[in-house]
Write a structure and sequence with these properties.
Elements lengths: L1 H22 L3 H18 L4 E2 L6 E2 L1 H12 L6 H11 L12 H5 L5 H16 L11 H17 L1 H14 L9 H9 L4 H26 L1 H5 L1
Antiparallel strand pairs: 1-2
């Protein structure tokens, strides 16, 4: 039921988005449209997950970073903020179709603000996209690579801290391990190969789409 509803919301958002792109020339409206579209895509990503220990492998972390790099600057974190707000008020848009305050208070709740922090860092490093970036340079490639890698790394920090304190307070630490070793083994190490693969996909996609988005979002600034 929820899956059907979310799919309907996504397709409706895409339809409205393209109508606005075709008929509206107001850049502020266009920016809001892209934010809403990207937030919807992040939300639908909640159903793509692979169970692995305490924390599943998800696609939403990469989507948050990708959207941030595509939009660039402070606007880059807006889709992630909208996605987090939707889940906080109870919509089932978090990993596995969950939502509500209980997810934030759970052992993996720290990763949610981590998504926002990672998106903010990635958007800040990547900066606003520009039409001139159609012609790739070493500087542009390095900047986007750094933005993606930094965003994917930073989003772990709140999640690891939250899980560390939860595992310690709940007495989940095995006798033969330290709290830090258990946390790293549960939250970080198993996910490094998958995140490297995600980054390897996100980087070329971002490099390809950033100048395209710049034509719509920053047309006036690019002409100056």
């Amino acid at each position: 039921m929820w899956i059907v509803n979310l799919n309907c919301i996504l397709w409706f958002t895409i339809f409205v988005f393209f109508v606005i792109v075709l008929f509206m020339k107001n850049l502020h409206i266009l920016k809001l449209s892209f934010v809403a579209l990207f937030a919807a895509i992040i939300c639908v990503g909640c159903f793509i997950r692979i169970p692995l220990g305490v924390i599943p492998i998800v696609l939403q972390n990469a989507l948050c970073v990708l959207c941030a790099v595509l939009l660039g600057g402070f606007l880059g974190a807006a889709p992630t903020a909208l996605f987090l707000l939707a889940g906080l008020i109870g919509l089932p848009v978090y990993s596995g179709g969950t939502g509500g305050l209980a997810v934030w208070l759970g052992p993996t709740g720290g990763f949610l603000p981590g998504y926002l922090l990672g998106a903010m860092v990635a958007g800040f490093i990547s900066g606003k996209p520009d039409v001139s970036q159609k012609k790739l340079s070493v500087k542009v490639v390095v900047r986007v690579m750094l933005a993606v890698l930094a965003g994917m790394f930073i989003l772990y920090v709140p999640g690891v801290v939250r899980f560390f304190y939860w595992a310690t307070a709940a007495g989940k630490i095995p006798a033969d391990k330290t709290a830090l070793a258990y946390t790293m083994g549960a939250c970080v190490i198993p996910y490094i190969p998958g995140d490297i693969l995600k980054a390897a996909i996100v980087i070329p996609v971002a490099l390809k789409l950033r100048p395209v988005l710049a034509q719509y979002l920053y047309e006036s600034s690019n002409k100056n």
